[in-house]
Each structure stands twice: as structure tokens, then as C-alpha cells.
């Protein structure tokens, strides 16, 4: 297990990047704690797999250094870095049995056969394929195959980190949940450093201690699930996390007063906004109160999810979503108030701090 | 894929059935017809029963030609298959090299077979050919017209030249269809170059290798045009393969009965051997 | 687990971007291990090209030079051999004949193979497996076996020395091959696509032409390529079935033996000309070759 430092990593797939836009992965400078469970979350093509492959050594970054426990591994191969990685589609060695598949990484490293046997048996129990050891891997189901891929990482108990590249894409929803809890359990039990790439926020939020949200080749926020929810540091995080996503409304700011169309709200802090910046107010639908007092709003439709209702409305000429309690009544002349502590102010899409 | 039972599908197969019946069944019936009759010309035929079959199966000439065919197929398969795999493994995977390699390698496959023969006939000639001239200049006593060994060598090198590309292209197609993740996983598992070949590349190439093997076996076993142009079956009968012998018998000597009987036996041998190879090579698949 | 996370905001991170360009460029420092694997294909291609080069070389030489001196390139380049071919109708009509029957064969083979391949890939029917195997056995039939009966069959229909005779005869081995290749590609198309189209109210012919055929276009291309190839290179049957009017170019080559001995130059030039159509076809399908040779089912 290791602490992983990424120092000013950048990557471009083409030769000689000219502008910032040529980089598939823009500057990343970050430390991953030993034993941490991290999720890399973001839409397709945001650079998360690139970052993962740079950590595992399948890809050489164009710029920057990678350290494992302080040791520079930038120029080391995947093998030398001692990393396990599970891919989106299960990779198994068709012609081998389940047992031999799991023994493969150990035998390649010339681990003595009794030790191989002990560890394979242990792993095979861990991933719940004990009865299948002698079966050819070819005939297994997708989730069993993915378990083998995972097992090939777990069987090497000295790996520096286990990396997952959207490992549950091909798995049935029910099995997804089972595998995810198994992973979580294994993580607690053995304390591997885990990095998990996904575009599914539920997966990221349930799996990881820290979620790294990526957008357009850069990391926009790193935080606990609660931080991402309450204090999205970029409007993208606001949209991307939560269902429905955060309401982002164009606003003009004057001292501690925010003006949204005809309405003005007084904040309990003074956001420091540079002149000429595009300013917006972000508020989660969960923190918009619908009642008979406050600012005027026009309700368009109400969606009932079973646990709560989502009200789609128009506020100051912009669409807004409001989450209300399952049996709350929608008043005839609806008005809204915003929970002051849940208001975030954005300048040019980046959050402006309270304290600033 | 789950297929539905539908006998109306026969209507879709009907055009193929009619066409192949016309171009295969009727001629084959003609052959069967001849094989059991004797003639003294003037379209007068007599029932000959299995006489011709017995005659062919007892003729040394037939068995020798068959032996030559088996030897030839065996040699070229044991050269072309490993060589083809080796070249395919070392082909560039991307960049400008890929189309260049593919186009140049495919070229011999699209040269008419008698031109292939002509090219090598000329190339191997001691007086005007680059190969023959160079070899004799180097002091080798090379002459494919007179020397049995040289004739065989020329035919084998010619076949390797002509057909190895087929194996290369098939294997290459199998190799490029392997997802990148397999190689990445192998790196992570610390697999050696040999292990990657043995456990990833070879299993993924298995199907195309089966196709390559069967096609090369069938075509080398039926070879006619190229040796006919280069050696004409000689020196002596040393390169007279079954096809050459058959054409000699049928068109040269117009011995229709024996030729027809030999045709049928020949056809059956190709079928039988292909079936055996196919069964043996796919049987390991079935046991899970 | 201690929180040693770098707490800089992304805004700060991007401001550092410019500073980090001075970091050493790793990619440059770690040049990929120099690989020698290009040697093997290169040697092989040299081996393939030598005999072809020699043929081209000869085609530009005079007969005196070919037989008299030994030279690696033409000392006295001449176009005479090509002029002989292009001015003699017997030569260039050979070309047209070959192309005609090859194209006819390709069209017929693919056209009849399409519905059959669809039937094999989608349905089970009485005797389907036997039928499929029987079709494939025709690919294993030695052309030498069929040469004589073909001659008699087509004589009976008065088709000797016509292009269609050769085209039909070549169907013997091309139709099974086309069915086999197309069946592979079609099996790769999910059956749900057919079902969705029927639900959307497509009739079978319309579905086949509008939806299915475009889906397997590359498979059709591959099948056509193989049909073209095997029809173009085959000579035994083509020569048996033709005398003058439909004689293929490759057969015309035997004419170069004249009273004054072998006309090597013209023979070489004719050989070079027979290579060109194949080379053109390969050039056009170069991007599909790898996929095509996988026959759609790896």
C-alpha cells in the first residue's frame, strides 16, 4: 500500500501540444492517501481514464512526476510500480481455469507454488468463486469474469494500489450492488489504496471516502460526498451531483445583496467578486422552500418520485426545481424562499468563498 | 444466437441451391457416370462397375501422386503457418506502416496463378532469372528443370511466396481484434512476452488459424497451375501432383473412365482430410 | 487516515499551470525501447517484391538484353513490349474478357449468397446444417476434377467460349465462400434489429434493402473482394471453357512462344499487366483488409 503523489501532471495525446486545449488532462497536482478509497467521477471524455492510466503506468504523462511513498516512479513500468487494475470489460485468460487465472500474476512473479496455492485459495473464497476453481474461465457469466479480474488484483497482497476503470459497466444492476458492497468490505478489511473511475454518481458517492470530480480534462473539486453536495466549488459539480442537480440562476451582486430578476436577497456574507465576472447563485432544490411567503414563482408541473415531489417551476424567468415533502401541498399562489446557509455564489462558474 | 425454426427459409437458400446444383451437382453426376462406364469412342458406353476404381486404387502412379501431394502440403503448412504467425506478430499496429504492409503483402494473392508460375519460372532460370543466376554465380548447381530436389525447392519457395501472406493477413486480423485491455491487464499481471503470446494472442487467433490451416491445406492439395507452368510435373514425374496427373489422364490421354474414378477418389480424400482436421482442431473447444 | 490532501482550490491550480511547463518533459526522457520487430516484415516484403521486381525489370528490356546480358535494371529501357500488347487486339481483348467474367461472377455470387446467408444466420430449417456443410464441400472440390465435365456441360448448353460460362463455373467455389463470409458478418448483427424493424412496419424486402444491407456493407465488400480475387486468379477452368472470344488475359500469355523462340519481354509485360488490376483492387480496399480477413467472426 502506498501514498501516491501526482506532481504537476499534464497529458496530451498528440505530439507537441500548443495550447491548453490540446491537453486531454490539464494540470493535476494532488496527493492520494495511503489506504484511501477515491472515486474519479465525471462525464465520458473528461480525462478520468487518462489520469488512471497515468497512475498505473500504462500511459506516460507528457509532463510532471508521480511518486509512490515519496519514490519517483514516473519512468517505471506498470509491473515495477506494482499496481493492480480492473478494466471496464472483464479481462480473463479464456484457456485457463479460474484457479490458473488467479495464480497467473503470482506465477509470473515467480512466487513459490505452495504460497501461490495458499493465496489463490484465499482469494477465491474472498470473491465467492470457491466452487468454480477447476472450471474453464471461458464459460462464466460477466460478473463472475469481472470477479476474476478483481481477484487477480487481490491475490497480490503487496500491491501499491488497486485501480478500477468503470468496473461495473457490464454487470446487472442487482449484481452491481452486491459487488460494490463486497468491494467496500474488502477495502475496510485490507485497507488497499483504491482509485475507482466511474461516471455514475451513486457509485462514486457510495464507494469513496473522497470523490474527485473531473470536467473537461481538469479536476474541479475533491471532497467528501457531503462537501460535493453542500458546497459544489464549480457549477458543473452542482449540476452533475444530485438529482435533480443544483439550480444555478444568473444573479447580480452588490455587496451582500444578490439580485435575481425582480427579487433581492440579503446574504449573511459578502462575496468578493471581481468586476465584470459572470455571477450566478446556486441553490440545491432540497433547500428551496415552497410556501405562501417569499419570492414569486410559477409552477409548471409536479413530478412524484414516491419519496418526495419535484416541482418544476419558473423563477424570475428561469426554470427552477424544488424538492418538497411527499405530502406537502402546493399553494395556489406559490412563493419560495432560499435557505440562506445553502446559498452558493459563483463567479465565472467557480464558487466564491464565504470567508473571502 | 437463438435461431427460430422456419422452413420457409429454404426459399432464401433456393437460388444458391439451384446455382450450385448447376455448377456442381450436374458436373459431378457426369463424373460419376463416366466412372462406372467404359467407352471405345463414338459415344458408345458400357457398364464397367467399379473396375476403374479398383484400377486407380491399385495403380502405383496414383499412390505416388497422392504421396507427393501429402508431402507437399505437409511441408508448406509447416513453413507457412509458423512463418505467417511470426510475421503477423511483428507487423506494425498503427501508422502508415499498416496499409503499406497490407497492400504489399496481399499483392501475391491477386496475381493469376499461371502468372505466379511464370514469374518463378523466369526468376529461377539460370540464364535469365535473378534467383537462378545468383545461385549459380555463387557456385550452387541449381537447376529446377533437371534436378528433383531443386524442382521441389522452387515449388515450395514459390508457394511460400504466394500464400504465406494469406496466413499473415488472417492472423493479423485476429490480432488486431484483441482489445487493448488484454495487453494492459497482461502488463499489470507481469506476463512475459511468451505468456502474452501463449495465453492471449494464440487463443484469440485460434479461429483464424483454423481457417488459415484449412484453406492452405485444401488449396495446396488441389494445386495445379503453378507447378504445371514451372515444372510441367517434371523432372520425370517428380512434381506430378494429383491434379496434374488427373488432367493428363482426362485431357491428355482422354481416358474418361479412370480419370472420373480418380476425380471422385481425389475429391473424397480432400473432404475426408478436411473433415478430420476440422474435427481434431475444434474438439478441444468443446470440453469446457 | 490523516487528511493530507492538498487543499488548493482549482482556481489556484490552474494559475500554476504556466509555471509547471518548465518541469522536465518525461515523455522525451523516456524514449520507447527501440524495437527491432520491423525487420521481420521488411525482410518478408523484400522477399515478396524481388520476383515481381524482376518481372517488371524484364518487361522494360529488349529480348537481346534479356537473353544476352545479365543486368539488375534495364540498360536500354524500352516500351516496345507494352506497345506490342496494346496494339494487338488479341492481347487487350484478353483483359476485357477477364474483367467481364470476374465482375459477372462477383455480382452473381454476392447476389445469390445474400439471402442464403441471411437464412443461415437467422433461421433453423430442415437440413440447414447439412446444406451448409455441403456448400462448403464445393470449396474443397479440386478444379481439375471439374474441368472436363464443365466443358461437356457448357458445350451441351452452347455456352462454350462465353463470359457467362466462366462466371457460372467460378460460382462453384465463390458462392460457398460468399455465403460463409456473409453469414459470419450477419451473425454479428443483433437479431433485435430485425425484430424492431418488423415492429416498425417494415416489409421483409424493404427491411433487407434499407436497413440490413447497409449494416453489413463492409461484409459485402469483403465477400466481393474474395470473389473477385479467386475468380481473377483461377485459370484452369477459365481456359478450359474458352477458346477465343472470351479467352482470359492470363491464358493469352501462352501465345508468346513464336517461331523465333520465346518473346520474354512481351511475356513479362503481359505478366506485369495482369498484376495491375489486383494491385488496384487491394489499394482500394486496404483499410478493410484486416477486418475482412477476420471474416467477421473472430
UniProtKB/TrEMBL annotation, chain A:
GO terms for molecular function: ABC-type ferric iron transporter activity; ATP binding; ATP hydrolysis activity. It comes from the Bacteria. Keywords: ATP-binding, Cell membrane, Membrane, Nucleotide-binding, Transport. The keyword Zinc does not apply. Residues 4-241 form the ABC transporter domain. GO terms for cellular component: ATP-binding cassette (ABC) transporter complex, substrate-binding subunit-containing. Belongs to the ABC transporter superfamily. This is ABC transporter ATP-binding protein. It comes from Ferirhizobium litorale.
UniProtKB/TrEMBL annotation, chain B:
GO terms for cellular component: plasma membrane. It comes from the Bacteria. CDD domains: TM_PBP2. PANTHER family: GLUCOSE IMPORT SYSTEM PERMEASE PROTEIN GLCT (PTHR43759:SF1), TREHALOSE TRANSPORT SYSTEM PERMEASE PROTEIN SUGA (PTHR43759). Belongs to the binding-protein-dependent transport system permease family. This is Sugar ABC transporter permease. It comes from Ferirhizobium litorale. Keywords: Membrane, Transmembrane, Transmembrane helix, Transport. Residues 66-277 form the ABC transmembrane type-1 domain. The keyword Transport applies. It is a multi-pass membrane protein. It is found in: Cell membrane. The chain crosses the membrane at residues 12-36, 70-89, 95-115, 122-140, 160-178, 208-225, 256-278. Its main location: membrane. InterPro entries: MetI-like, MetI-like_sf, Sugar_ABC_transporter. Pfam families: BPD_transp_1 (PF00528). One of its GO terms (biological process) is transmembrane transport.
Automatic annotation (TrEMBL), chain C:
Pfam families: BPD_transp_1. InterPro entries: BP-dep_ABC_trans_perm (IPR050901), MetI-like (IPR000515), MetI-like_sf (IPR035906). Keywords: Cell membrane, Membrane, Transmembrane, Transmembrane helix, Transport. This is Carbohydrate ABC transporter permease. GO terms for cellular component: plasma membrane. Its main location: membrane. The chain crosses the membrane at residues 36-56, 99-120, 132-151, 163-182, 211-233, 264-285. Signal peptide: none annotated. Residues 95-285 form the ABC transmembrane type-1 domain. Belongs to the binding-protein-dependent transport system permease family. Residues 1-24 are annotated as: Disordered. The keyword Transmembrane helix applies. Residues 7-24 have a biased composition (Low complexity). It is found in: Cell membrane. It is a multi-pass membrane protein. It comes from the Bacteria. One of its GO terms (biological process) is transmembrane transport.
Amino acid at each position: 500500500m502506498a501514498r501516491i503523489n501526482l506532481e504537476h501532471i499534464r497529458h496530451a495525446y498528440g505530439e507537441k501540444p500548443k495550447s491548453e486545449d490540446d491537453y486531454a488532462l490539464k494540470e493535476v497536482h494532488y496527493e492520494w492517501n495511503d489506504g484511501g478509497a477515491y472515486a474519479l467521477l465525471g462525464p465520458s471524455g473528461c480525462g478520468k481514464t487518462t489520469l488512471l492510466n497515468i497512475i498505473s503506468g500504462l500511459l506516460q504523462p507528457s509532463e510532471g512526476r508521480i511518486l509512490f511513498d515519496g519514490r519517483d516512479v514516473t519512468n517505471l513500468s506498470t509491473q515495477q510500480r506494482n499496481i493492480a487494475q480492473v478494466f471496464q470489460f472483464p479481462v480473463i485468460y479464456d484457456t485457463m481455469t479460474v484457479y490458473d487465472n488467479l495464480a497467473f500474476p503470482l506465477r509470473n512473479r515467480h512466487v513459490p507454488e505452495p504460497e501461490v496455492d495458499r493465496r489463490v485459495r484465499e482469494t477465491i473464497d474472498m470473491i465467492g468463486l470457491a466452487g468454480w476453481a477447476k472450471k474453464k474461465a471461458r464459460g462464466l457469466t460477466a460478473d463472475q469474469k469481472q470477479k476474476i479480474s478483481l481477484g487477480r488484483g487481490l491475490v497480490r497482497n503487496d500491491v501499491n494500489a488497486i485501480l478500477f476503470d468503470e468496473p461495473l459497466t457490464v454487470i446487472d444492476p442487482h449484481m452491481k450492488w452486491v459487488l460494490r458492497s463486497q468491494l467496500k468490505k474488502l477495502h475496510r478489511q485490507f485497507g488497499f489504496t483504491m482509485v475507482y473511475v466511474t461516471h455514475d454518481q451513486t457509485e462514486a458517492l457510495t464507494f469513496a471516502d473522497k470523490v474527485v470530480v473531473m470536467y473537461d480534462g481538469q479536476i474541479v473539486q475533491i471532497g467528501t460526498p457531503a462537501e460535493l453536495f453542500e458546497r459544489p466549488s464549480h457549477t458543473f459539480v452542482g449540476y452533475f451531483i444530485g438529482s435533480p442537480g443544483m439550480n444555478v440562476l444568473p444573479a447580480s451582486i452588490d455587496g451582500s445583496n444578490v439580485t435575481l430578476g425582480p427579487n433581492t436577497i440579503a446574504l449573511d456574507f459578502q462575496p468578493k467578486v471581481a468586476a465584470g465576472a459572470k455571477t450566478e447563485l446556486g441553490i440545491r432544490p432540497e433547500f428551496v422552500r415552497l410556501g405562501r411567503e417569499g419570492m414569486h414563482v410559477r409552477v409548471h408541473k409536479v413530478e412524484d418520485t414516491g419519496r418526495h415531489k419535484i416541482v418544476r417551476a419558473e423563477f424570475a424567468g428561469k426554470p427552477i426545481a424544488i424538492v418538497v415533502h411527499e405530502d406537502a401541498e402546493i399553494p395556489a399562489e406559490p412563493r419560495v424562499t432560499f435557505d440562506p446557509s445553502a446559498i452558493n455564489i459563483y463567479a465565472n462558474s467557480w464558487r466564491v468563498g464565504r470567508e473571502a | 444466437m437463438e435461431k427460430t425454426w422456419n422452413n420457409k427459409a429454404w426459399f432464401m437458400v433456393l437460388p444458391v441451391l439451384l446455382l450450385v446444383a448447376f455448377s456442381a451437382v450436374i458436373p459431378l453426376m457426369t463424373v460419376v457416370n463416366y466412372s462406372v462406364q467404359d467407352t471405345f469412342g463414338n459415344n458408345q458406353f458400357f457398364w464397367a462397375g467399379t473396375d476403374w476404381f479398383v484400377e486407380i486404387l491399385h495403380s502405383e502412379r496414383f499412390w505416388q501422386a497422392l504421396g507427393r501431394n501429402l508431402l507437399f502440403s505437409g511441408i508448406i503448412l509447416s513453413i507457412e503457418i509458423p512463418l505467417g504467425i511470426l510475421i503477423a506478430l511483428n507487423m506494425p499496429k498503427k501508422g502508415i506502416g499498416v496499409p503499406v504492409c497490407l497492400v504489399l503483402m496481399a499483392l501475391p494473392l491477386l496475381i493469376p496463378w499461371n502468372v505466379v508460375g511464370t514469374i518463378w519460372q523466369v526468376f529461377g532460370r539460370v540464364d535469365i532469372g535473378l534467383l537462378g543466376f545468383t545461385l549459380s554465380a555463387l557456385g550452387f548447381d541449381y537447376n529446377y528443370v533437371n534436378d528433383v530436389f531443386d524442382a521441389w525447392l522452387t515449388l515450395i519457395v514459390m508457394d511460400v511466396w504466394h500464400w504465406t501472406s494469406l496466413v499473415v493477413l488472417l492472423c493479423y486480423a485476429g490480432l488486431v481484434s484483441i482489445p487493448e485491455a488484454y495487453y494492459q491487464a497482461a502488463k499489470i499481471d507481469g506476463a512475459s512476452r511468451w505468456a502474452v503470446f501463449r495465453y492471449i494472442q494464440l487463443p484469440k487467433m485460434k479461429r483464424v488459424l483454423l481457417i488459415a490451416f484449412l484453406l492452405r491445406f485444401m488449396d495446396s492439395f488441389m494445386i495445379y497451375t503453378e507447378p504445371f507452368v514451372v515444372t510441367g510435373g517434371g523432372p520425370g514425374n517428380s512434381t506430378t501432383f494429383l491434379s496434374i496427373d488427373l488432367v493428363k489422364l482426362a485431357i491428355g490421354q482422354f481416358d474418361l473412365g479412370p480419370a472420373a474414378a480418380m476425380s471422385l477418389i481425389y475429391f473424397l480424400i480432400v473432404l475426408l482430410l478436411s473433415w478430420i482436421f476440422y474435427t481434431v482442431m475444434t474438439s478441444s473447444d468443446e470440453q469446457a | 487516515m490523516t487528511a493530507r490532501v492538498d487543499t488548493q482550490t482549482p482556481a489556484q491550480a490552474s494559475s500554476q499551470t504556466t509555471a509547471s511547463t518548465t518541469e522536465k518533459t518525461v515523455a522525451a526522457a523516456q524514449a520507447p525501447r527501440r524495437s527491432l520487430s520491423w525487420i521481420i516484415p521488411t525482410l518478408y516484403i523484400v522477399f515478396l517484391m524481388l520476383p515481381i521486381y524482376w518481372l517488371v525489370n524484364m518487361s522494360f528490356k529488349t529480348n537481346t538484353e534479356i537473353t544476352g546480358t545479365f543486368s539488375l535494371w534495364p540498360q536500354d529501357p524500352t516500351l516496345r513490349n507494352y506497345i506490342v500488347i496494346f496494339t494487338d487486339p488479341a492481347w487487350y481483348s484478353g483483359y476485357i474478357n477477364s474483367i467481364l467474367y470476374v465482375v459477372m461472377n462477383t455480382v452473381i455470387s454476392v447476389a445469390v449468397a445474400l439471402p442464403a446467408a441471411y437464412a443461415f444466420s437467422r433461421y433453423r430449417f430442415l437440413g440447414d446444417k447439412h446444406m451448409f456443410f455441403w456448400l462448403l464441400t464445393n470449396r474443397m472440390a479440386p478444379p481439375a476434377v471439374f474441368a472436363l465435365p464443365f466443358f461437356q456441360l457448357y458445350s451441351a448448353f452452347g455456352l462454350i467460349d462465353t463470359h457467362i460460362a466462366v462466371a457460372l463455373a467460378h460460382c462453384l467455389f465463390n458462392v460457398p465462400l460468399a455465403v460463409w463470409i456473409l453469414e459470419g458478418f450477419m451473425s454479428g448483427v443483433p437479431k433485435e434489429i430485425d425484430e424492431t424493424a418488423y415492429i416498425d412496419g417494415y416489409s421483409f424486402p424493404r427491411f433487407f434493402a434499407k436497413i440490413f444491407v447497409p449494416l453489413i456493407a463492409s461484409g459485402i465488400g469483403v465477400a466481393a473482394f474474395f470473389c473477385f480475387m479467386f475468380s481473377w486468379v483461377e485459370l484452369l477452368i477459365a481456359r478450359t471453357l474458352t477458346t477465343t472470344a472470351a479467352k482470359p488475359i492470363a491464358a493469352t500469355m501462352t501465345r508468346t512462344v513464336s517461331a523465333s523462340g520465346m518473346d520474354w519481354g512481351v511475356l513479362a509485360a503481359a505478366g506485369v499487366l495482369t498484376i495491375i488490376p489486383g494491385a488496384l483492387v487491394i489499394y482500394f480496399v486496404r483499410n478493410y483488409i484486416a477486418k475482412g480477413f477476420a471474416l467477421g467472426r473472430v
